[in-house]
Design goal:
alpha/beta
Length: 480
Amino acid sequence: MENIVGRDKEIKELLELYESGKAEFVAVYGRRRVGKTFLVDECLKGKITFRHAGLSPVDKESNKNSVKNQLKHFYYSLQLHGMKKSHCPTSWMEAFFMLSQFLEKQDNGKRQVVFIDELPWLDTPRSGFITAFEGFWNTWGCHRDNLMLIVCGSANSWMLNNLVNNHGGLYGRTTYEVKLHPFKLSECRAFFKRAGVIMSHYDIVQSHMIFGGIPFYLRYVKKNLSLAQNIDQLFFEQDAKLSGEYDRLFASVFTNPDVIKHIVETLATRNTGYTRAELIKETRLTDSGFVTKMLNALIASDFVQSYIPFGQSKRNLTYRLSDPFCIFYIKFVKNKTELDHEFWMHNVAAPAINSWRGIAFEQVCLNHIPQIKAALGILGVSSTQSQLVIKGDAEKQGAQIDLIINRKDNIANLCEIKFYNEQFIVTKEYYLKLVNRQNLLATELPKRTAIHQVLISTYGVVKNEYSNIFQSVIDIDALF
């Protein structure tokens, strides 16, 4: 396991399932590039009896993902693992029959691990894949106490609808689900350390604003370059390695990539997000279940988060783009016809980039709520997290509160999130702004609730006559 950074919980779970002594059907899912295949390969190295990966649907023009080619590829995988040369199956029913025969011949009483990667790619139109897969597990696999079937997929909505939450022949059949999440800041630090990349906490946080803790992207960071140089090399140089990643992300995971990107790019225009009705109006999509299905697919794939704004009802459910990579790409790379190959180096202190840093740091904090609660000493306290936007008018000043932690112990933490390259200074003007926000929030809370103001900032706060408005100050070190 020395090649794996983090993932302690997932490794422990997979190894316990391997030793369970009964048939196991494990679904591993998560955002594309998050490291699902690497986890299974490393955790069960030398223990896999048969493995296969579906052909990508990206090259549809070349008919690469047709059922005929998928079956041929499956047949070749059987041969690579030792099956005697026979004939290519003409259906998935026959293909899984051949797999069961192969496994029976290989059976010596020890654990047999079957790993099928990118399972959703095998389910091509009119292929009969799901029916055959159900038959393989329900008729044969689930009765083999030494069989461990592991399936992976980046199309999370497919994995959830067809496996985890399936109401057909696979209902309740998965014995365990593992959802793999992007790295937290502490895991990014460990990853960089393993790679020999020396980087300050300040820059690791910025890397998380761009790469979102996705291991596949982090591995491209070169140790002899600064973060700014790495960003230029990965996004802005000619033929940069990640310049085409945005389009590949959606083409390989969603059946309607253009519609999905239209939704994502609309969500990117407002940091606080859109309600479903607002989104339909902005995108001009037809008001139907299709929009809900697309939004749920984006949530399942960790591109979008949904939340109910503070003090509002479920009818105001709001969707916001939460994938840092997509946010960065849309703002700085997409549709730029001419890119300065040293764009980031030349603009590292530009107002547009500083503005983006402030918004991107908010997302980093929203992805590290447990660490924030631990810093506040309330990790064991039940709470809900949300945002609040109050529109101003001629009579009252509006306000936006980045994060509210509403606790069951009658405390509401009003969190102000600031990304600075030095300690934050609370001026008189800003102090009055914070007082106004506290007064506005107080009108939305029960009278028994006390409001504690919290500053989450890069290097904390300069002590002055106004800084005491914060009951707690959290710096970036606490997020690791």
